[in-house]
Amino acid sequence: MKFKAGLIALASAGLAVTGIASAQTQGVTKTEIVIGTVQDLSGPIVGFSKPTVNGMRMRVDEINELGGIHGRKLRLVVEDHGYDPKKAVLAAQKLIQKDRIFAVLGSIGTPTAMAAMPLYLEKNVAHLFPLSGARQMYEPLQKLKYSFAATYYEQLRSGLKYLVKEKGLKRVCTIYQDDDFGLEVKDGGEAALKELGMKYAEVTTFKRGATDFSSQVARMKNANCDVVVMGTIIRETIGTVATARKLGFNPEFIGSTASYDGIIAKLGGAAVNGYYSTCQISFPYADDASKSVRDWHARYKEKFKEDPTLFSVYGQIIISLFAAAAEKAGPNLNPDTLDKAIESLTVPRDMFGGDAQTFGPKKHLGATRAKLCQIQNGRWVSITDYIAN
What we know:
The protein is an alpha/beta fold. The chain is built from twelve helices and 14 strands. It is globular. Residues 1-22 have low confidence and may be disordered.
């Protein structure tokens, strides 16, 4: 009986130890919250990712200087995927298994996020606020899966419809990257046209990494299109528009937030003047901003020795959203408390003009509207407020 009692006591002690171990949340200690981000630091959209990381790091430092979140400091681990879905999967495995992150924030790129997201969610690691406007970033509804920006689909559905009506456009073409990102843009434009009783006059695609767009542009020119929906990012946007200008093809061009960046205006020069893009925040020009934005701009430039970009702002916003959710989750931070906190999270418009973020149990997308912006004399200008969906 004593032997049996001893076994029972030992088993009970073992269960207690197991209970303590299982209560330990990955990436959360008494003093630290480990978060990760996977960016393109060596591929075609490094011009987006480098400032994103800088914006994230600056905001992390600010939060930590103020004491962190319920006494815990944030530690950000950065990985590179080079805009390659296979590398995104490898980066996810490292972040989950070696770095043991609590959440991954701001994953950039639709095809890369799509490839890696299931790995995080399977391990109960939150996949939050990716830099992708794909609907798959929050659909289907799933615990720990949240997005913060209006989808490419909704951006083009509302933006194209507005532009067609405003300018009396008749023939619409599209050129898009032949992957999940491009399809979202193409489909959003198609939805707008359906509501207007129209169809695409020409549909053409390109492979990721392409540099020659002459054949696609020739097809659209032959179709006499007066507006082109652009499922493009940086070099594809500049390449397509520049090629069109050389061929004497001068329609309106409209892209998504994936092509809303200062580098387009800077590198594209006169060719991209007049280019439209859906947008969700105002470009952070230091000479045309509120005092709070000017102060933020100055701090960023002092820290990184360069001007911030739009993606620096995204980095700031993403970390701020996570911090608000983690603060709301309370001292007992774990996947369940974080999920419940985000489901009840509301964040007002930010100093950059970003739309209010509102989440709910059946609403895992924070903002649903976009504005229309245009390159005018080398600078991005907001030409509408948020367009109704």
